[in-house]
Amino acid sequence: MRRFPATLHVVVACGVVFVVSLALGGPPRFLPPWTALFALSAAALAHLWSSEKRAGRSALQSRPDAALFWLCATLYLASFRWHGGDDIPNSLLPYAILKHGTFSFDPYRQWATQTGMQDLIHEVRGRLVSVYPVAAGVLALPLYLIPVAAGAAPSDVFLHNLSKIAGTLLTAGSVVLVRRTLATRCSPRWAMACALLYGLGSFAYSVSSQALYSHAPAQLGVALGLLALVHEGRAWSVAAGFGFALAWTAREDSLFYLAAAGLFLLIHRRDRLAAFISGAVLPIALNSAYWRAYSGSLWRPPYYEMQADLFGGLDVHALVAMLVSPSRGLLFFFPAVIFGLWGAAKACRNPRTRWVPYMALASIAMWVFVAFRISWVGGTTFGTRYFALPCMTLAIFAGELEDEIRKSSRLSAAWAGTFALCVLVHAAGANFQWPGIRLSLERQAAAVWDVRQFPLAHIFIDGGPISATPQPWRTLYALTLLALAALPATWMLRWISRERGSHCP
Questions:
Q1: Which of 49, 365, 440, 502 has its CA 20 to 30 A from that of 56?
Q2: Using CA atoms, how far apart are residues 103 and 124, in angstroms rounded to an integer?
Q3: Residue-wise pLDDT tens digits, 70-90
Q4: Vertex 469: Cα angle to 466 and 474 (nearest 5)
């Protein structure tokens, strides 16, 4: 009789607990669902690691997608913090759809009209609707099937749990798709290295995975679009159109990536354009139908109406601050941008990667677009969350540098150190209170050059998340935390130093 390993029994037990937690609605009746999913994710990762090790294999090599998904999901959930706010309508919308068959919040009018909800939910044509795109809530529907079928009540705590779980799963899925895209150009090891840079060293970790924001579905859509774009065949072209269009329906600024992909095909691969357009039709048509039904317009949904008041002229100061300021600068929050730009420059000279310049231009366009926003700092958020998608593309561009980095001990060390710094910054974002959380937009903009607002400094200052800890223990804690950066740096250096040479197909 076949005997199953103990780790598999633990996985099954954790899975049952997770399902029960969803059915009972979490606290006070049962365990919080995201705690249950964390246990399930950690158990699945442990089972995968141990089973592959017994077979003499590395899980990251033999089962890369599963290992990467569970690793990211485990770390995302391990923060045990909910960094939500704008996600609140998305977290309730699936209940409205599944229980009441509507995209409006009229069945929850008392909840939707309470103090603090006026910026999130507007009354349009007599119905209460989200001011944000609804794609995130629609993608989260499968997660809500069990609690809705079981009659679990949508309490605040339960919705926060579902929001956290949905953001985690969508973001981890995008990391897997990024790895697959990289694997078409690079060795498995380098593809994993760059995918981990995106998954653990960017806003995917600190922001997108922490709640059901619009960022995660946008990243999932663009990741699917890029994966499909680098493959041949009609089905892949349809998938590319679907992915990029899905991203646009989730976040309006993802339009730049949809336009870039379409322009690339129009100029270089016109034979794929019709299939691409056919794939884009479904998400755009469904989104337009929602706009028409609930706002009476195909072109001015509630979110666009609100956004119109947030734009002014081009702010040159914002352009600079979003790149190099301590509290919002891309160079501070994603120093691997240097490798990404280098990789993009190399790819632009390669006729086999003609799509890269278009995606690079889309990222630049998003940067300039945000600089027109009065609220370019991104609100009470972590860094400049608007760079979530550009960070993804930069990590993919870095895939072009495999030979240069792995053949040079100095560049390998620089890559490993940069990776570790990125991971440390965004681990701080996921696990601690965000800098500027109590500051108004005006005070946030005034403090962008304050080095104390940089996450690795903010943790330890008076007023920071551990300011209650007295000295010298706070300093000791700081030194310990910084020393932990040696772990991902050492691992990355060992990971990429094996099997040196040319690995790109």
A1: 502
A2: 12
A3: 999 999 999 988 887 888 999
A4: 80
